[in-house]
Automatic annotation (TrEMBL):
The keyword Signal applies. Residues 37-132 form the TonB C-terminal domain. The keyword Signal applies. This is TonB C-terminal domain-containing protein. InterPro entries: TonB_C. SUPFAM superfamilies: TolA/TonB C-terminal domain. Residues 1-22 form the signal peptide. Keywords: Signal. It comes from Paraglaciecola mesophila.
């Protein structure tokens, strides 16, 4: 009998844990600060929301980071630097991994040349739905990131 109760408790605990995790939504918002996306020579080839870095998600870390990078003549992200972030420095390493993987496409019609960019990434957690997480992230992106 005690064994059945222990097994039942374990199963219920796992179910509650799964429900709690299912209600944890996250979103990442990318903002092109300089140049603005409409004036840029290079745009990302895949215009999908960047993935939330697993390192940050597992630790429950939300925040923002402003990054300076160069898109080289081949459309690769190079020289990624952290300009500012909240929390300090915790965002840099996982965000750099994400940015480093991006590929860029020249949409200007001009010959390929390097372009310096300043971007902001907001990593947001919380909300009871994907839409709520996106709305929270849009609000967070309006705040200072220093």
């Amino acid at each position: 009998m005690k064994k059945r109760i222990a097994i039942l408790s374990s199963i219920l605990g796992l179910q509650f844990s799964a429900v709690a995790q299912a209600n944890n939504y996250a979103d990442v918002k990318l903002t092109h600060l300089d140049p603005e996306k409409s004036a840029a020579t290079w745009v990302r080839t895949k215009q999908v929301t960047p993935r939330y870095p697993m390192d940050l998600a597992m630790k429950g870390i939300a925040g923002c980071g402003v990054f300076k990078l160069t898109v080289d003549e081949d459309g690769n992200s190079q020289d990624i630097e952290l300009v500012s972030s909240i929390p300090k420095k915790v965002i840099f390493k996982p965000a750099k991994k994400v940015i480093k993987k991006w590929r860029w496409e020249n949409v200007s019609g001009q010959p390929n040349q390097a372009e310096e960019k300043v971007i902001r990434l907001d990593f947001c957690m919380g909300g009871s739905s994907e839409e709520e997480a996106k709305a929270r992230c849009a609000e967070q992106a309006k705040l200072q990131c220093e």
